Amino acid sequence: MPATRFYYLHPLLAGPIEAWPPHLDRVAAMGFDAVVIAPPFATGAAGNLFLTADHDRLDPRLGNRAAIEALADWAAASRERGLQPVLDLVLDRVAVEHTGGNGLAAWYRADSSDEPPDPRQPPQRPGVARLVPDGDGAGAADWWAAQLTAWADAGVTGFRCLRPQAMPASLWRVLIGAVRGRHPESVFVASLSDGDEAEAAALVACGFDLTTCWPGGWGARIEEVADGFNRLARLAPPAIMVEAPFERRLGHDVAEAGRAWRGARRAIAFATTCGAGWLVPMGFEFGAQRALDPARDRPEDFTRLSAEPAFDLSSEIAAANRNAGRAAAPLLVRPLSAPDTQASALLLEETAAEGARLVLVNESLDHAVGVPLSPLLAAAGIGMLHEPTGEGLLGPDSAVVLHAAELRVYRAAAAVPVARHPVGPLEGSAVARVAIENVGPSVEDGRFAAKRLVGELVEVVADVVADGHDRVSAVLLWRRADEDEWREAPMVPTENDRWAGRFPLARLGRHVFTVLAWKDRFASFAEELEKKFAAGLPVVLELEEGRRLVEETAALAEPAAASPLAGLAQEIAAAESDERRRLLLSPNTAQLVAAARVRPNARQHPVDFPVEAERRAAAFGSWYELFPRSQSGDPKRHGTFADVIGRLPAIRAMGFDVVYFPPIHPIGRVNRKGRNNAPHAQPGDPGSPYAIGSVEGGHDAIHPELGTLADFRRLVAAAAEHGIEIALDF
Q1: How far apart are the first and last CA of the chain?
Q2: How many Å apart are CA 445 and CA 436, to the nearest integer?
Q3: CA distance 317 to 540
Q4: Would you say 407 and 364 are in contact if contact means Cβ atoms under 8 Å apart?
Q5: In what order do the strands lie in the sheet with 343-349?
Q6: Each residue of 203-226: pLDDT tens digit?
Q7: Which of 276, 377, 504, 653 is the most exposed place for a label (fewest CB within 10 A)?
């Protein structure tokens, strides 16, 4: 299995190769399974490790030995500690000193001061010789193939290929093929400078095992990594770098150590949660603020950093490495949150068996943030989530609080769809003093189900009126179709006589709701008392009326609600006039009366309005139509379901989630149509798939040249693994 937990060891910070074993011990203790190094070869005058002047000699700062011997010792020491040795590979440029007598002069060209700059090429830098695109490609491929094979023979097990998009794809195929011809387990990691889709696509067939993805390279918000991640994933599974080696550090702009520590821990959690692997550059564990320097770093720089670190994340990194790989790498990363939110939300779509994970990330290093789940669940097409502890479920009516810089992962819960049972005729209420009208959402007054997505909160509205001037109150009654008892949710007045309430859709399937309304005697009384008192009118009779109303309500209420109401009635009776008024108009009194559920003239709307909680695909789908019989790639051979399976990756790469077939049943032979809608068929013409029925069967059979029922089931299973469904004309 290829390594997935990479530590980047900077040779100039580690010092002479003989001094590397303690560093390797520390890397192994943190649980990494691979160690990556920058090119350790002799450099040009600039001293930059990425501008090699001689691949046969070791950089003098690392020792006075042949490079191949030093690589062999480093590789052996790494493998002794369970670490795969991985070497950075730079093919698109060398030091200018490298072109004078070692065979590379024909393929690399240095900047010439007497030539005007070519606007089609990147600007040249002094001391750099770049690969000539139109040079002797075969010669360059042979030279590099020999070098890589020699390094692999010395024990190097992998190569991190920098800027692979700058080289022809044909060169990479030659090099990777040459190395794996002798070392089949060699690992090649593509480290693109960005997530350009065209550049990644050009390298798809070259044989790379992994790519590297750096969230900091694509934007400040973590969710902005999604597009780049998905582009790179088409090339190879992305391993996420918490920091890109030799780029700006996470803590560069964060002076306070506590804030930097929180940001670093968030980067660890994101990389190990979302990537197929991860990479940690040297010094990250100690909160380094200065970027790695490929020319001027010295061992004493790291000695000083490790002796006086801003913080030490070694134990956190070791724990992350122990847990890494427990979840499958996502097939697709989809952002869910709006741009102006304080927290990023990503949906990690995995195989059908794995399900999906919802990742919430607090972008702030300083403040906690609350996250309502309903918009995210609806966008993801998920009804419920497992708590991270594994105990309990969260639904659309839930909200969570993320601490500063916290990342939290939820796995989608496999909620059982609501079982639908036949609904009998509805009977209306005989109470006529309260009217409930214009209830929504409804389709033809509840004759058909309104459609919503699982994960949404359904907003119910209704007009509620009554005769006279009495105040009215209303509640929303709702239940799932496989439940018998109503659940109750509050409704509030919005404008005029309009009332509104909400209920959650946490499971797929049929839900029903209705509205219950009544004349609210206590609310009417309280409104009258308040108006009369404000107008300066005597309210002695109203105060007594209020006391009696509380007593009557207590007498009619259930015992749990009756006791506090009875006590309140006694308190009102013993109070003076002003205190009586205060008690009767207190919000606590209104709550106690409402809890008693004494609802005179109550009327329940006679219709139970259905709402169908659909999966996300019901709202929108991208359909790709094809004829299975045309997928063989050979005009002389009838296509099969197996041929369609071969097309699935390409269809998924275009973003489609449904493959749509014409009928797949046996085609009639009598009066069969010919090619191009000709009225008469010639021998060998397949006929129209819509002319169903022959000796092989009808609508319950499959055309024998397409395959068997078992073949079709294999196709459906294969499509599901790619996140695709099959739709049929019938």
Answers
A1: 45
A2: 12
A3: 74
A4: no
A5: 332-335, 343-349, 356-362, 407-412, 385-386, 393-394
A6: 888 999 999 988 764 445 666 678
A7: 653
SS3 of residue 523 by DSSP: helix
So what's the pLDDT on residue 222? 64
DSSP 359-408: EEEE--SS--EEEESHHHHHHHT-S-EE-TTSSSEE-TT-EEEEPTT-EE
Tell me the C-alpha to C-alpha distance, in Å, between residue 369 and each of 348, 362, 403, 518.
Answer: 22, 7, 7, 40
Q: What is the CA radius of gyration of the chain?
A: 36
Q: Say if residues 506 and 535 touch (Cβ distance below 8 Å).
A: no
In the three-class reduction of DSSP (H, G, I as helix; E, B as strand; rest coil), residue 332 is classed as: strand
Asked whether the beta carbons of 491 and 537 are under 8 A apart, the reply is no
Instruction: Please report, for residues 79, 363, 469, 650, 728, the alpha-carbon distance to residue 179 in angstroms, rounded to integers and kept in the order given.
Output: 19, 43, 89, 29, 47
pLDDT of residue 219: 46
> Is pLDDT above 60 for 284?
yes
Choice among 83-87, 266-270, 526-530 with the minimum mean pLDDT: 526-530
What count of other Cβ atoms lies within 10 Å of the Cβ of residue 636?
A: 6
436 touches 498 (CB < 8 A): no
Q: Minimal CA–CA distance to 148: which of 108, 204, 187?
A: 187
The pLDDT tens digits for 541-552 are: 888 888 888 888
Count of CB atoms situated within 10 Å of the CB of 609: 24
In the numeric block, the tokens 């490495």 are attached to 321
* Residue 114 confidence (pLDDT) above 60: no
For residues 266 and 264, what is the distance between their CA atoms, to the nearest angstrom?
5
pLDDT given at position 570? 84
Mean pLDDT of 61-83: 95
31 pLDDT above the threshold of 90: yes
Rounded to whole angstroms, the Cα distance separating 118 from 663 reads 58
| Among 141-155, 208-222, 244-258, the range of highest mean pLDDT | 141-155
Between CA 42 and CA 52 the distance in angstroms is 6
With bands split at pLDDT 50, 70 and 90, how would you rate the model's confidence at 424?
low
The answer to whether the CB of 661 falls within 8 A of the CB of 727 is yes
Distance between CA atoms of 552 and 653, rounded to whole angstroms? 69
Say if CB 268 and CB 313 are below 8 A apart. Answer: yes
Cα dihedral 108, 113, 114, 116 in deg (nearest 10):
80
Q: Calculate the average pLDDT of the chain.
A: 87
Give the tens place of pLDDT for each residue, 435-445. Answer: 999 999 999 99
| DSSP code per residue over 21-88 | HHHHHHHHHTT-SEEEE---EEE-TT--TTSEEEEEEE-TTT-SSBHHHHHHHHHHHHHHTT-EEEEE
At a CB cut-off of 8 Å and minimum separation 6, what does 668 contact? 687, 691, 692, 693, 694
Q: How far apart are CA 625 and CA 644, in angstroms?
A: 12
Is the confidence at residue 323, as pLDDT, over 90? no
Tens of pLDDT, residues 186-195: 999 999 865 5
Note the pLDDT of residue 182.
94
What does the alpha-carbon distance between residue 563 and residue 554 come to, in Å, rounded to a whole number?
A: 7
| Residue 63 confidence (pLDDT) above 90 | yes
- 3-state class (DSSP) for residue 130: strand
CA-to-CA distance for 176 and 468, rounded, in angstroms?
87
Q: What is the pLDDT of residue 232?
A: 86
Alpha carbon distance 672, 683 (integer Å): 10
How far lies 99's CA from each of 59, 89, 332, in Å?
Answer: 17, 18, 44
pLDDT recorded at residue 218? 42
Angle at 80 between CA 76 and CA 83, to 5 degrees: 90
Query: For residue 346, what are its two tokens?
Result: 């990503």
What residues form DSSP beta bridges with 209? none
Which pair of structure tokens corresponds to residue 522?
A: 């206590």
Using a 10 angstrom Cβ sphere, with 0-12 exposed, 13-18 middle and 19 or more buried, the burial of residue 30 is: buried
